[in-house]
Amino acid sequence: MSLSGEKRGYAVKIMKNKIYELLKMGKRIDERTPEQFREVRVLTDVVAKADGSALVSVGKTKILTGIKVEVGTPFPDRPDEGVFTVNAELLPLASKTFEPGPPDERAIELSRVVDRCLREGQALDLQKLVLVEGQKVYMLYIDCYVLDYDGNYFDAAVLSAVAALMNCSVPVYKVVDGRVEQVPGEKFKLELRNIPVSVTMGLIKDKVVVDPLPAEEEVADTIVTVGYSSETVVAAIQKSAPGLLPVPMLREMVKLGLEQSIKLRSKLLEAVGDGQKQA
Amino acid sequence: MQYFRENEVVVPGQLLTDDTRKRGFGTYVRDGKVYASTTGIVKTINGGVRVIPVSGRYKPERGDKVIGIVADVKPNVVEVDLGGEMVAVLKLPERESPPLNLDIGDCIYAEVKSTGLRGILLSNEGLQKIPSGILVTINSAKVPRLIGRKGSMIQLLRRESGCDFWVGRNGLIVINGPDPSSEFAAIAAINLIDREAHKPGLTERAIQLLRKIKGGSGEQA
Amino acid sequence: MNRPKLIDENGLRADGRRPDELRKIRMEVGVLEKTDGSAYIEVGGTKIYAGVIGPREVHPKHLELPDRGVINCRYHMASFSVDERKPLGMTRREIELSKVIREALETVVFLEEFPRMMVDIFVEVIQADGGTRTAGITAASLALADAGIPMADLIAATAVGKVEGQLVLDINELEDKYGEADMPVAMAPNLNSIVLLQLNGRMTVEEMFKGLEMAQEAIKKIHGLQTEALRNKYKVEPEGSEV
After folding, report:
1. Rg over CA atoms, chain C
2. Which of A117, A257, B47, B69 is the most exposed place for a label (fewest CB within 10 A)?
3. Are residues B142 and B199 in the same domain?
4. Largest Cα–Cα distance in chain B?
């Protein structure tokens, strides 16, 4: 059941203090500890027509990403690189607060944050996706659909995009007299250079909660998503809600996020490594 | 002639009986026969055939005690959010301030006065403002299980957790306890009931969970 | 252009089915959390999620009706559900299918039981291999039942095609693409009435009615699967009987 407060912007007054009191004890309303992620499940290769696909759930939040590979022209200023674009849609059946229609600011923000994690996180070596420099390159369309929303679509979206890339088989094309032809039946697996993961955290007074629930998102002072491309590199940051973010708190969040990102990355690798498994 | 077994799960369009006098809630009549109009459990009650819906969506009825959040205060009316995109109203005489000085975001406990074409109206009588507590939501279909026969389950939860509970028939629950760890134990027990209402031995497991959490150093169950 | 052979010398179809054989069907009810009712269906390679939200307040308010409810339906395909990536946004085909699916389901819902409210139906195709509107409507009907929306009957659907002169049941994408006709049919089985009917292609009148007969038989089976899926989800819970 959802309270319209999600849409109308009022927080349930009686909740904020209580959630904070529980946090001081190191507890949350769904019985997790503050730095814990909900249960993460990763299934790859769920849509055969997609060149790569993954269905990820983080708790009850569920996101399906599919990748379609085509051949096209590169950007003029990057003739030696393949191209990828990320599009995310907040499907109306995922939440009563998602309206049907063209992507709204939340969907666009989600698309761009996932894109940043992949791009700045250097998930792919785009130079390996060139067929004829300056003329023909591989184009990857990465489309993420939020099927069920129970807080924090960022992390599930990044996980599903990365898992779909890990699952992606690209049709082989050969160049014949400057023309590009598909070699039927031949495919190669995409190799990822880095495995970016993101960790979204809510700040409630001086307490940080990882992977916030909708009730926590509602009472949080603000929410920050941090994308980590490896154990030392931060590839993306997004403060995705209004509110004050003191610098010392940000420091704490980035550190906490890093610890959790390492765990999340190994869960992802374990799940995809086996093809279809629960993380 | 009866075409079903008592307590069977029926689906919309399923033929139940040809005695149209027996039609009850959750059924409809066509061509002299009675069919189910909703997915649910079919029961014969006082000679009538009724289908008890099993869906989680709350359907308000007169006399239900519900919990809601004040969404808006207008000159004649206070709008109350009952969850699930369901909004009820409290009517106020013109130019009077809202009862109990209700403000947006306040949490209230009220009785449903009427439902129907004009919407859901809550009664001003017996209206209470809940001063503080933790709001949790469960599937409204599980509320009877949470209350238990003659209130036995909820009384047990009160005793074992030391907390006060406000239980709305619409699935909204407010917990108020002497300390956070009691409240935490109560939340865990409610989540258990929401998840496992249909399984046997629920009472035992709820008691064990509460004792474990309260008795231990607050470690996660 | 290589036109694939759709029916072989033994009368079997390209995927090995007999002309009157359905593909493998899998249904599950209550698969999503945030909808009031939901269902997932697979018919061969076609995979679809259906969700229902409602009844709830009508937005925008001026569309509300004083004496009955309003139904909205959105049939939408994921970009990667088809061979050639589908552009984002609603195509004309999706808009047309949204309408015919809505009208079919609207026919059996008791709208008078939720005046001034609306019910939203979402059909999300994640993989398309022919028969998406019929599988979609079958799943949407389950989602409505899961949400407890009052209805006169469940709706089950399938498509009949004509391929190399022969009538075949539950056409897949290949047969749809290269066949001579495609006729999706949805029915309310207990009311013995059609709620959705379209024809794209050419058939004689006799073929049409023979095809409808085939569809009716299949629809009975599909309806049986729907009933089973609903029963599986709602096995009896003794209410407050324990304490």
Report:
1. 19
2. B47
3. yes
4. 65
Low-confidence ranges of chain A (pLDDT < 50): 1-11, 275-279
Q: Is the pLDDT of residue B149 over 70?
A: yes
Task: Return the number of CB contacts < 8 Å for B and C.
Answer: 112
Contact A64 C126 (CB under 8 A): yes
> What ipTM is given for this predicted complex?
0.88
CATH number reported for the structural domain that contains residue C71 in this entry: 3.30.230.70
Residue B71 placed within a domain = yes
Scanning A134-163 for CB atoms below 8 A from C yields: 141, 143, 145, 147-150
Q: What is the pLDDT of residues C90-99, one digit of tens each?
A: 899 999 999 9
- Test B12 with C56 for CB contact under 8 angstroms: no
Q: The CATH number of the domain where B15 resides is what? A: 2.40.50.100
Angle between helices B180-196 and B152-161 (to 10 degrees): 150
Query: Which sign, positive or negative, has the C-alpha torsion B100, B101, B102, B106?
Result: negative
Contact C175, C13 (CB under 8 A): yes
A162-185: pLDDT as tens digits = 999 999 999 999 888 878 898 998
**Residue B12 CB-half CA count within 13 A:** 27
Q: How many structural domains compose chain A?
A: 1
Query: Which of A47, A94, A141 minimises the CB distance to C34?
Result: A94
A159 occurs within a structural domain: yes
User: For the whole model, what pTM was predicted?
Assistant: 0.85
